[in-house]
């Protein structure tokens, strides 16, 4: 799959977000990279949230660069194939997980929500 087709699925996944999420998702950018940087700790990542979670942003949190959600295309493609899961569904799951971090949920919180 090429990056353009993956981007189109990512846009569709974003459009599939509930209106509540869409209305509360401010100053966030989603980017797509092939894979994480050469770092053994991050080699398996499907996505990464970088920023300050919403609960920790005060009223003076203005004029800052957007928080960033990175989707790692090759890892998502591999994991989707491995789990025999439709690619759009896999992108949605990764995207929702990273958005959860944006809203202040920890890994542990998100694992409890998934189960």
Topology:
Blueprint: H1 3-15, H2 19-24, E1 28-33, E2 47-50, E3 67-72, H3 73-82, H4 87-102, H5 107-114
Parallel strand pairs: 1-3
Antiparallel strand pairs: 2-3
Helix pairs in contact: 1-4, 3-4
Question: What does the model show?
Answer:
This protein has 115 residues and is α+β, with helices and mostly antiparallel strands. It has a single domain, classed as 2-Layer Sandwich (Zincin-like). It is 46% helix and 14% strand. It has a 3-stranded mixed beta sheet with strand order 1-3-2. It is globular, with a radius of gyration of 14 Å. The chain starts with a helix and ends with a helix.
In short:
The chain has 115 residues and is of the alpha+beta class. It has 5 helices and 3 strands, in the order H-H-E-E-E-H-H-H.
Following the backbone from N to C, one meets helices and strands in this order, namely HHEEEHHH
User: Which regions are unreliable across 5 or more consecutive residues at pLDDT < 50?
Assistant: none
Largest sheet descriptor: 3 strands, mixed
Distance between the termini: 30 Å
Any idea what the radius of gyration is?
14 Å
Percent in strands = 5-15%
CATH architectural group: 2-Layer Sandwich
Return the CATH topology.
Zincin-like
């Amino acid at each position: 799959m090429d990056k353009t087709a993956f981007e189109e699925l990512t846009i569709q996944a974003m459009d599939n977000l509930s209106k509540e999420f869409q209305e509360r998702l401010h100053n966030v950018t989603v980017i797509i990279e092939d894979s994480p940087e050469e770092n053994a700790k991050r080699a398996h990542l499907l996505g990464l949230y970088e920023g300050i979670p919403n609960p920790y942003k005060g009223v003076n949190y203005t004029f800052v660069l957007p928080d960033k959600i990175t989707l790692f295309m090759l890892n998502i493609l591999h994991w989707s194939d491995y789990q025999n899961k439709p690619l759009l569904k896999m992108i949605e799951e990764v995207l929702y997980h990273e958005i959860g971090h944006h809203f202040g949920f920890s890994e542990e919180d998100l694992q409890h929500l998934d189960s």
